[in-house]
Inverse folding.
């Protein structure tokens, strides 16, 4: 303890002291860490892949967009028959009496044909008389007539060609569909459809549910996912784009998508590929609860005493706790 009345020089007399520049050390530390971070980021960071938009979809694969829009009108896409929370057409995933989608019901109403095709075209028809006439013809036609047009157009699409971004099909009785789809492609390629599907009355647009559902109904997005090794069969849930590792802690979830019964159409005990999401959530909930309750589960809680692996890992700690013989 410093003596009362002693000066600083007297107090530190005999003690070896060296100059110390705290500011210099902080600057060097910040610069060093910054350079290291930049080098590691350049060597190990995942690719900066451009965002996927409906505009890029329409520009790179307009036939797929038109095919998807046609299927939306026919009600045969994934979103059109998904069930809750988007619509009541499908029952959703369930396991016996456990059906969360049905319990919570339709919370985000999405009429695929109207939202993805009819409504955007209605907004685009204000200054387009030909499009307005085509929409009126479509909406006033009987369901049987609409089905005939859709069937004929769908059969012609596999042989469609693209010229200057426009989709061309063989001559046939498609009613107003050619005019409707031509305008939809034009709006999409210009970036208008991306904005129209985000309009929800809010200043900040953060709800991408509708654009994602529409793109997901086609083959374009799934093709990009497959190329980037992000599909479920490629352990995509825990990967970044390409072969870069991502959230490795998700391996326990994504592992179950690779094994039966979640890969089988028939399955086991009611679990199969069609309700894999729900089945895996239930399984992980059960495993998490079991992990939390390990101290209370007989036999399971006694395994560390029977197989003391922890004593090998912490052998240094247990060696110090040994009582000497005769002590």
């Amino acid at each position: 303890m410093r003596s009362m009345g002693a000066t600083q020089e007297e107090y530190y007399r005999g003690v070896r002291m060296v100059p110390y520049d705290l500011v210099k050390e902080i600057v060097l530390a910040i610069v060093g860490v910054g350079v290291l971070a930049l080098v590691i980021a350049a060597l190990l960071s995942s690719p900066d892949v451009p965002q996927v938009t409906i505009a890029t979809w329409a520009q790179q694969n307009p036939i797929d967009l038109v095919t998807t829009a046609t299927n939306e009108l026919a009600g045969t896409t994934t979103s059109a028959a998904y069930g809750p929370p988007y619509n009541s057409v499908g029952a959703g995933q369930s396991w016996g009496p456990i059906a969360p989608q049905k319990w919570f019901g339709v919370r985000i109403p999405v009429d695929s044909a109207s939202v993805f095709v009819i409504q955007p075209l209605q907004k685009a028809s204000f200054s387009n008389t030909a499009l307005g006439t085509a929409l009126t013809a479509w909406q006033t036609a009987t369901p049987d007539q609409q089905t005939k047009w859709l069937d004929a157009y769908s059969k012609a699409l596999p042989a469609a060609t693209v010229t200057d971004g426009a989709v061309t099909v063989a001559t046939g009785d498609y009613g107003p569909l050619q005019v409707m789809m031509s305008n939809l492609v034009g709006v999409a390629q210009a970036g208008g459809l991306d904005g129209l599907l985000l309009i929800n009355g809010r200043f900040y647009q953060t709800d991408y549910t509708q654009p994602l559902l529409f793109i997901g109904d086609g083959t374009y997005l799934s093709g990009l996912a497959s190329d980037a090794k992000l599909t479920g069969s490629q352990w995509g849930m825990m990967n970044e784009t390409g072969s870069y590792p991502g959230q490795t802690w998700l391996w326990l979830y994504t592992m179950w998508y690779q094994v039966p019964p979640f890969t089988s159409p028939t399955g086991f005990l009611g679990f199969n590929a069609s309700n894999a999401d729900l089945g895996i959530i239930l399984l992980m909930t059960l495993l998490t609860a079991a992990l939390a309750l390990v101290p209370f589960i007989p036999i399971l809680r006694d395994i560390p005493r029977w197989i003391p692996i922890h004593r090998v890992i912490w052998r240094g700690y247990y060696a110090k706790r040994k009582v000497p013989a005769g002590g």
Remarks:
- The radius of gyration is 32 Å.
